[in-house]
Design brief:
single chain, 366 residues, alpha/beta, Rossmann fold, SH3 type barrels, Elongation Factor Tu (Ef-tu), domain 3, five-stranded parallel β-sheet, 9 helices, globular
Length: 366
């Protein structure tokens, strides 16, 4: 009998989740490894070699480590669960003129749900992942996620949607370590190839990193339906033709294929009229936004005029803001300094110090 209980570890075959499994094993947990196959790249129509968490090489790497440490390893096929929810949402958001955040949805509605369901089946008290984040139980009885020690690798931004029930059973072994140290630990334990394994920054189901081509494959005839719409300025003046509104994102500058004598950026997308609004950099700047589907983590409710650092995308440093949560669940966010490139559909995540207060999806202005 293990001294710390039984834990189901999500193993992608990469260095992070592999070292997470090693650490928990060495800490006295009874480890069970599970690799979730979320997407079959061979049937997606993409070009190039299959890479990432769904590839055969990655699955074999996860299994080899489990064999070495003597714990069970399972492969879980959740392609149907993943595809019907994540892919449909991804496509639907672009069709609606928004920029989707598939990793947040996958963590919240697919991976954690799938892990907890199988953990129950396998009598595991806990689940664990290789995310760079930390969490703790507070005196108010609520679990809170905080940033990982390695701020360059911190992944708390994509975890804002997790429930209290999920957090109560979750372990983040890597939260107190740097990426460099994790690679060293893999090498010290004899997994040199794993320690030197490169990282993928692509969306797992778009391994060629071409979301436009992916949309065309998923929605036959899409290009013909939306091509030839107008590029307009904020005053409504038509200045050119675009390739179809779903193929543009807020803040985009490159690839507009239009010359107006100065740099132009996408500042709005209007699906109803197949119109893409472009303007100068200053027109991207905003002082307010609304956030929908808010999930609070650190507190059960927010006081009026709650002050927090708000991140509007993963690599955003964050901006000080005042947040007021309305009775309908919409958060009104007033920035103390102007921010640029607010993209509806992306996640807005609120921090108090290093603690994740909560988050939601940026709402398209009405």
């Amino acid at each position: 009998m293990s001294k710390n209980g039984r834990v189901l570890v999500a193993m992608s075959g990469g260095v992070d989740s592999s070292v997470a499994a090693m650490m928990l094993h060495d800490q006295g947990y009874e480890v069970i490894g599970i690799t979730m196959k979320t997407w079959d790249y061979a049937t997606s129509g993409g070009s190039g070699k299959e890479t990432g968490c769904c590839s055969l090489d990655s699955i074999n790497d996860a299994r080899a480590l489990a064999v070495r440490y003597g714990f069970p390893h399972y492969i879980l096929d959740i392609r149907d669960e993943f595809g019907s929810f994540i892919i449909n949402n991804f496509v639907g958001e672009y069709i609606a003129g928004r920029t989707p955040n598939p990793c947040v949805l996958c963590n919240t509605h697919i991976k954690w749900e799938a892990l907890l369901k199988r953990a129950n089946m396998l009598d595991c008290e806990f689940i664990a992942t290789g995310h760079y984040a930390q969490h703790r139980l507070q005196e108010n009885g609520r679990y809170v996620i905080s940033r990982g020690l390695d701020l360059n690798k911190d992944q708390s931004y994509v975890l804002w949607g997790l429930s209290q029930e999920s957090l109560a059973r979750t372990r983040f072994p890597l939260g107190g370590f740097t990426k460099t140290r994790i690679r060293e630990m893999a090498a010290e334990n004899g997994f040199v190839d794993l320690a030197n394994k490169s990282e993928s920054y692509e969306i797992c189901f778009v391994p060629d990193n071409d979301y436009r081509a992916f949309l065309k494959r998923q929605v036959p005839g899409l290009e013909e339906k939306v091509e030839g719409g107008d590029f307009v300025l904020s005053d409504g003046s038509v200045v050119g033709k675009h390739r179809g509104y779903p193929f543009y994102t807020i803040g985009q500058r490159k690839g507009l294929e239009i010359a107006l004598g100065k740099p132009m950026f996408v500042i709005d997308i209007k699906p109803d009229t197949n119109t893409v609004v472009i303007g100068n950099k200053e027109e991207l700047v905003k002082n307010t936004m609304q956030v929908r589907d808010v999930n609070l983590m650190k507190y059960a409710e927010l006081p009026e005029d709650f002050r927090a650092l708000t991140k509007i995308r993963y690599k955003h440093d964050g901006t000080e803001s005042i947040i007021n949560l309305r009775s309908d669940g919409i958060a009104e966010v007033d920035f103390l300094e102007s921010v640029s490139g607010i993209a509806p559909g992306q996640s807005a995540v609120f921090y108090e110090g290093n603690d994740l207060v909560g988050g939601g999806f940026i709402k398209k202005p009405e």
